[in-house]
Amino acid sequence: MEQVNVTINGFTYKANKEDTLLQVALRNGIYIPHLCYHPDLSLSGICRLCIVEVGSGQLTIACKLNVREGMVVNTETEQVNKARRVNLELLLVNHHMDCIACSSSTNCQLQRAANHIGITEDRLSRLRRPERKLTVDDSNPFFLRDMNKCVLCGICVRTCAEIQGLNAIDFGSRGFSTTISTFADKPLGESICESCGECLVRCPVGALVPKKTEKPVRTVKTVCPYCGCGCAMYAGVRGEKLVSMRGVKSSIVNNGALCVKGRFGCDFVNSPERLKTPLIKKDGEFVQATWEEALDLIAKEFSKYKGDQFAAFASAKITNEENYVIQKFARAVMGTNNVDHCARLCHAPSVAGLAQSLGSGAMTNSIAEVGEAKCIFAIGTNTTVAHPIIGLQVRKAAHKGAKLIVANPKVIDLCRDACLFLQFNPGTDVPLIQGMIKVIVDEGLHDEAFINERTERFEEYKKSLEQFDLDTVEKITGVPKEKIAEAARIYATA
């Protein structure tokens, strides 16, 4: 990557040619006030606070200015501060100034910018317009939305579109009446919002705040206990209480993103109904016991069932390391290979098919690579619910132009992004796939070289497809034959 020399406030710094001036400044510890910039999102320049002076006095915004060799920049001149002050005052005249009561106080980018630029209370009092008394939206179960504190930076809008791929919110109305709105201006809880909280963690002010406002004292890195994606998280702890969850940006699994379950669904550990000590049943009643007593009892009972009398069941929801320990305990301690997993019950056909055709019963691509696919055929899966982080990548691919074909007995969230939806009758997925394959083979869209080199008994299989003409498949599945043929062609030519 080509590097250039940039001089900021009299000091020269190395920078990548593709970087913006704001990125270079922040990376080198130079604060330039900003509200609409976030490293995870596209650039917008909407807040106009990151004004700097380039060369002989030209004013421009740093967030959209790419650096070049020999560039000379000043971030703190009288002309710069005057321009920033005007732009910031235009934001503050409409802003509710209850900073002491705001849960984002001391962690507010607007507050930091005002302190840096030197906004005075007496000047603001002369400029302030009558306060808008917009109703605080508390319809979401996890966070509040207060448009009285919104600065219209657009970060939440871009987050919902670019990170979550949902577009649940956008700018609404015009002029002084502009707000961030849902479709038809419904409360957030009645919209298509999935409560992932991605907008919440990026909001630079107090417009979006969690309903549970306890701040963590320390963080512990952990793994989400819900689906099998294995998202990395930082658990925020205060005393002996779990108070927050946030994603780990460096994780190759979730890249800092979390779904509603991971971000807001882990507080069950604080439930007063959870057991705090082991219970052992004596005379038909459970009585409290020490951990030593409980473990001694388990060891004693397990010792009666060594070898193939014993079986261990693992889980897709725990870590790879924990699954490894379970099988190690079964084999090395209990002396058995009876180790099972929930996937055998719900994914046995797919695991066997993948193992036979691709050599592995697991996915052969990374989660991130899903977002780069050109065609995705999602059959019998509700990905955004079962594995939300993978669902984000499916949406990402669709928004980048990938052809998404959804085949499901019911309408699911991904149907909004699909180019084609095949709503087949329950239990008829095999005839549907066979019908698609017949179209592909009949129209010569299959890969002859791959089939000759890597398959067996293809001619026999090809003959078996004769019973799956499209009229028959349409009658069985309930899917119009035109849609079946279109899906087959899209999939085969991607």
Protein described:
β11 and β12 form a beta hairpin. The chain has a five-stranded mixed beta sheet, sandwiched between helices. The two termini are 32 Å apart. It folds into five domains: 3-127, Ubiquitin-like (UB roll), CATH 3.10.20; 143-210, Alpha-Beta Plaits (2-Layer Sandwich); 218-270, ADC-like domains (N-terminal domain of TfIIb, Single Sheet); 306-364, no CATH class; 369-493, Dimethylsulfoxide Reductase, domain 2 (3-Layer(aba) Sandwich). It is an alpha/beta fold. It has helices spanning 21-27, 78-92, 109-117, 121-127, 155-163, 198-202, 260-264, 291-302, 320-333, 343-358, 367-370, 383-386, 388-399, 429-442, 448-454, 458-464, 470-477, 481-493; strands at residues 3-8, 11-16, 51-54, 58-61, 71-74, 143-145, 169-172, 179-182, 208-210, 218-223, 232-238, 241-247, 279-282, 285-288, 312-313, 339-340, 375-379, 403-407, 420-422. α14 crosses α18. The model has no long low-confidence stretch (mean pLDDT 93). Helix content is 34%, strand content 17%.
Roughly how many Å apart are the termini? Answer: 32 Å
Main β sheet profile: 5 strands, mixed
Question: Which spans of ≥5 residues are poorly predicted at pLDDT below 50?
Answer: none
Cα Rg: 29 Å
- Architecture of the largest domain in CATH? Roll
Oligomer: single chain
> Pairing-aware structural class of the strands and helices?
alpha/beta
Number of domains: 5
Mean pLDDT: 93
Count of β-strands: 19
Examine the coordinates and then state which fold CATH places here, giving the name of the CATH topology of the largest domain: Ubiquitin-like (UB roll)
Highest-level CATH class of the largest domain: Alpha Beta
